[in-house]
Structure formats: C-alpha cells, structure tokens
Amino acid sequence: MKTAFRLASLRAKYKWSLFDEKTVIEYAKKCTSCRNCERNCPQN
C-alpha cells in the first residue's frame, strides 16, 4: 500500500500520465527522497 500511495503522489505531482506504469515503477524504485525526485525528474 505504501508503494501504491507513493506512486499516486508522484503521478499527481509530476503528471506521470505521459509515462507507462512500468516506467513509473522503475523510476520510483530509484527515488530515495522527494528532493531527489525533483532534481532528477524527467519532466524538469
């Protein structure tokens, strides 16, 4: 559940609709913190 919630948060924050589920999941696995996501987000 925690992972699902985290993915939902990422999708909402970065509008992951352009990415398929597998890409989102693989990216989330590499993410260690929200700041790290912001810095490395492919949308930035």
Overview of this protein structure:
By secondary structure, the protein is mainly α. It has one domain (2-40). Helix content is 68%, strand content 0%. The protein is built from three helices and no strands. It has helices spanning 2-14, 21-30, 34-40. It starts with a helix and ends with a helix. The model has no long low-confidence stretch (mean pLDDT 65). It comes from Ignisphaera aggregans. Residues 21-44 form the 4Fe-4S ferredoxin-type domain. This is 4Fe-4S ferredoxin-type domain-containing protein. It holds the Pfam family Fer4_8. One of its GO terms (molecular function) is oxidoreductase activity.
Key words describing this protein structure:
mainly alpha, 3 helices
Q: What's the overall average pLDDT, rounded?
A: 65
Number of domains: 1
Task: Tell me the span between the first and last alpha carbons.
Answer: 27 Å
Helix content: 55-70%
Query: What is the helix tally?
Result: 3
Structural class: mainly alpha
Largest sheet: none
Strand content: under 5%
Quaternary = single chain
Order of helices and strands: HHH
Residue runs with pLDDT of under 50 for 5 or more positions: none
Secondary structure: elements and pairs:
Blueprint: H1 2-14, H2 21-30, H3 34-40
Domain 4Fe-4S ferredoxin-type: 21-44
GO molecular function: oxidoreductase activity
Organism: Ignisphaera aggregans
